Amino acid sequence: MAKKPSKSKLERETIFLFNDEEDTAVISTTSPSMAKKLKRRLGIGKEIYPGTFDWVIPKDFIKLPINRKKRKITKEHKDALDRKPTDNPDQIP
Predict the structure, then answer these.
(1) Residue 23 has pLDDT above 70, yes or no
(2) What is the pTM of this model?
(3) 18 near 59, Cβ under 8 Å?
(4) Around Cβ 44, how many Cβ atoms within 10 Å?
């Protein structure tokens, strides 16, 4: 059996495809390491071409990071957070 040629790093890609209309997303990968991770988490995907796998998943499974502004904490607030919490919620700064 002939060894199949390995793909370059540029050719080993993973695509997450979803839109506003459908409730599902498609993950497609040609990366063997990513395919192995996805197989562990999602089960065996559909092999479209040799070495190319697709998974159809609910779009809700995809969570994108949200850029949030970092709060500046004053020294007084930091000191209050370091103190032991009190049982009286009225005394919490």
Answers:
(1) yes
(2) 0.62
(3) yes
(4) 10
